[in-house]
């Protein structure tokens, strides 16, 4: 049994035959009208399974499945989603930054990543230079050089570079797990005196000031920041999330930075909503969130989306997309639309 999280939307088969999957995909790739076969395989496999399929495909057919997909005649949206599924979570994030590095993408990706993820994203970003898709893009071969060249806001650029260079405090995930199991909280891992000092700096500022935030956020762990926001919001007698949403609502540079530590699931819901509102759909954001969260907590995000937005996430994605691309998204979301 290949289990996924109880809060996942992804469904996987009890029996996984990697060689059969590779062969079936190869057959489907030879027939443009067999996208359904590819969807039924890759839409029901975990990230690790898909990487195994890609390896088996290369060994059996002497071609990288990524190259085969990239050169296929499927729609660009469908190809983009397939590639995202086949390169793994870190590879997908690095590829999105490589394709379009702007304020929105770096905030949504880098500001929510931990230290290990940031290091892996940078390595994967550089490795993409050797792929067919980015072979000609030698100007921005490293993530640092791309940020230096494309992010014009000096303060924002400095913060991102500090993140990449690993200046933030980190808390070991195993230590967090032990503290939660033994004490029910993580207070022992937080320097409360430092938290109070940081809160005082924020209160002295009086209103959102990027300089103050950058100074603090570029150094502290998300665990520290979550506690800091709780203490900061306490006098207002509001949940830290609601208080901070009001406090930094009109400052786009701060919103993602704050919400990443306070309530990441709510941040993801906001990103999904923003990806589909107004004219046009931001497919890269849909791909990133749905691919990354489908085997972890997408079921929770679907519930939270309906609670906060008042609409069904599957319905919204269905109405904003089309074709094979839409069908694969519906499968990943385990939406009722793909069962009709």
Automatic annotation (TrEMBL):
One Gene Ontology MF term: calcium-dependent phospholipid binding
Keywords noted in UniProt: Annexin, Calcium, Calcium/phospholipid-binding, Repeat
Domain comment as written in the entry: A pair of annexin repeats may form one binding site for calcium and phospholipid.
Entry-linked InterPro entries: Annexin, Annexin_repeat, Annexin_repeat_CS, Annexin_sf
SMART domains assigned: ANX
Name of the protein in its database record: Annexin
Matches recorded under Gene3D superfamilies: Annexin
Cited PANTHER family: ANNEXIN, ANNEXIN A13
Pfam families (alphabetical): Annexin
Family: Belongs to the annexin family.
């Amino acid at each position: 049994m290949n289990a996924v999280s109880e809060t996942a939307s992804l469904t996987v088969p009890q029996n996984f035959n990697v060689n059969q999957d590779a062969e079936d995909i190869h057959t489907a790739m030879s027939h443009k009208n067999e996208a359904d076969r590819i969807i039924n395989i890759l839409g029901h496999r975990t990230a690790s399974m898909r990487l195994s399929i890609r390896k088996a495909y290369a060994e059996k057919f002497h071609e990288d499945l990524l190259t085969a997909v990239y050169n296929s005649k499927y729609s660009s949206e469908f190809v983009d989603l397939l590639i995202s599924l086949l390169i793994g979570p870190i590879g997908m994030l690095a590829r999105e930054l490589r394709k379009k590095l702007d304020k929105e993408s770096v905030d949504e990706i880098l500001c929510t990543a931990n230290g290990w993820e940031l290091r892996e994203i940078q390595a994967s970003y550089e490795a993409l230079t050797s792929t067919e898709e980015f072979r000609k893009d030698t100007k921005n071969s490293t993530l640092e050089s791309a940020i230096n060249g494309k992010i014009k806001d000096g303060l924002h650029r400095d913060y991102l570079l500090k993140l990449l260079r690993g200046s933030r405090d980190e808390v070991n995930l195993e230590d967090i797990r032990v503290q939660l199991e033994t004490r029910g909280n993580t207070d022992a891992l937080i320097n409360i005196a430092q938290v109070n000092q940081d809160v005082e700096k924020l209160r002295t500022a009086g209103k959102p000031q990027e300089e103050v935030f950058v100074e603090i956020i570029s150094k502290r762990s998300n665990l520290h920041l979550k506690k800091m926001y709780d203490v900061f919001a306490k006098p207002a007698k509001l949940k830290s999330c609601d208080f901070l949403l009001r406090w930094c609502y009109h400052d786009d540079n701060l919103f993602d930075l704050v919400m990443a530590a306070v309530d990441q699931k709510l941040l993801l819901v906001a990103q999904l909503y923003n990806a589909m509102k107004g004219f046009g759909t931001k497919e890269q954001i849909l791909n990133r969130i749905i691919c990354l969260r489908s085997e972890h907590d997408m079921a929770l995000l679907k519930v939270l989306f309906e609670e906060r937005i008042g609409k069904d996430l599957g319905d919204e994605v269905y109405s904003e997309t089309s074709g094979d691309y839409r069908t694969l998204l519906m499968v990943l979301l385990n939406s009722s639309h793909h069962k009709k």
